[in-house]
């Protein structure tokens, strides 16, 4: 190992001797290797940190003079700028809103307001597309992204143009105690009948049963009366009719008598 080390030494010394004058000149005007330094007045001077701008460059005797950015201004890099950059405006009239207000070291960031998305074509915010009937908007809705429309699955429908609404489930007629009158489609809801099929049939007997009982009672009373009458008539039928006639005549006679008087 020793032999190896010693061999390049003479060559290295010779190189140093050659570079010696160059080294002197480099010390006079040193290269600004760091991106946080700049070269001026034969010196390597410090750049300004983010949030500050270069008010005065360095001189042979003084350092850089950096000053803070004003309100609504920023610089996000180590710089030698003579002024800060102005924050951009998130124009609500162009459907823009600030998602990050920014500060002296970071730019303000704008995004399109809800219901709009950024379009590269016009470099502006465009209104999100509406899904046609039969289609629903995919959720969760992505801010600053155009609507993704999906066809409604079986059992779901959408009957409107909407950029936000999902497909809605069909109405369950069974739960409402109704029957399905019309099937649902991807564009229309199920139509339930307004009648109550499972409750009306038991309702009918409830209504008719009392009247039926009364009718049966009436008929049985009439039959019993008829039977009694027949039995009675057979025993003393003629006497009864005679009595009846007598009573009728008497009643009529009284009535006519009253009229005559
Ligand atoms: C400026 O905003 C940036 C990005 O939001 C953040 O990282 C940084 O800490 C903020 N600086 C100050 C001084 O508030
Ligand atoms: C309606 O709801 C009932 C009870 O939750 C369920 O059993 C039935 O499958 C549903 N019908 C439809 C058409 O979704």
UniProtKB/TrEMBL annotation:
Primary localization class, coarse: membrane
Domain of life from the UniProt record: Eukaryota
Disulfide feature: 45-58, 48-66
Transmembrane segments: 207-233
InterPro entries named among the record's database cross-references: RANK_CRD_2, TNFR/NGFR_Cys_rich_reg, TNFR_11, TNFR_11A, TNFRSF11A, TNFRSF11A_N
Cell compartment(s), UniProt: Membrane
Ranges occupied by TNFR-Cys repeats: 31-66
Topology versus the membrane: Single-pass type I membrane protein
Database matches in SUPFAM superfamilies: TNF receptor-like (SSF57586)
One Pfam match: RANK_CRD_2
Start and end residues of each TNFR-Cys domain: 31-66
Keywords for the protein's UniProt record, in alphabetical order: Disulfide bond, Glycoprotein, Immunity, Membrane, Receptor, Repeat, Signal, Transmembrane, Transmembrane helix
GO terms (BP aspect): CD40 signaling pathway; defense response; intracellular calcium ion homeostasis; lymph node development; mammary gland alveolus development; multinuclear osteoclast differentiation; ossification; positive regulation of bone resorption
Gene Ontology cellular component terms for the protein in this record: external side of plasma membrane
Molecular function per GO: cytokine binding; tumor necrosis factor receptor activity
Signal peptide: 1-27
Function: Receptor for TNFSF5/CD40LG. Transduces TRAF6- and MAP3K8-mediated signals that activate ERK in macrophages and B cells, leading to induction of immunoglobulin secretion.
PANTHER family attached to this UniProt entry: TUMOR NECROSIS FACTOR RECEPTOR SUPERFAMILY MEMBER 11A (PTHR47134:SF1)
Protein name: Tumor necrosis factor receptor superfamily member 5
């Amino acid at each position: 190992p020793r032999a190896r080390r010693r061999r390049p030494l003479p060559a290295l010394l010779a190189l140093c001797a050659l570079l010696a004058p160059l080294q002197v000149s480099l010390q006079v005007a040193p290269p600004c290797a760091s991106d946080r330094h700049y070269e001026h007045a034969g010196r390597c001077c410090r750049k300004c940190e983010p949030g500050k701008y270069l008010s005065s460059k360095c001189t042979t005797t003084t350092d850089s003079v950096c000053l803070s950015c004003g309100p609504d201004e920023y610089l996000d890099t180590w710089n030698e700028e003579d002024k800060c950059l102005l924050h951009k405006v998130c124009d609500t009239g162009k459907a823009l809103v600030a998602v990050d207000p920014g500060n002296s070291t970071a730019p303000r960031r704008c995004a399109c307001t809800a219901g709009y998305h950024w379009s590269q074509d016009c470099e502006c915010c465009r209104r999100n597309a509406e899904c046609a009937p039969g289609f629903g908007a995919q959720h969760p809705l992505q801010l600053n992204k155009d609507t993704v429309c999906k066809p409604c699955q079986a059992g779901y429908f959408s009957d409107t143009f909407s950029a936000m609404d999902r497909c809605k489930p069909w109405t369950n007629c069974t739960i409402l105690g109704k029957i399905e009158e019309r099937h649902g489609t991807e564009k229309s809801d199920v139509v339930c009948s307004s009648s109550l099929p499972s409750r009306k049939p038991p309702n009918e007997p409830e209504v008719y049963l009392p009247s039926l009982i009364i009718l049966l009672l009436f008929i049985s009373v009439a039959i019993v009366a008829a039977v009694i009458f027949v039995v009675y008539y057979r025993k003393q039928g003629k006497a009864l009719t005679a009595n009846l006639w007598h009573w009728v005549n008497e009643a009529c006679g009284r009535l006519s008598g009253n009229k005559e008087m």
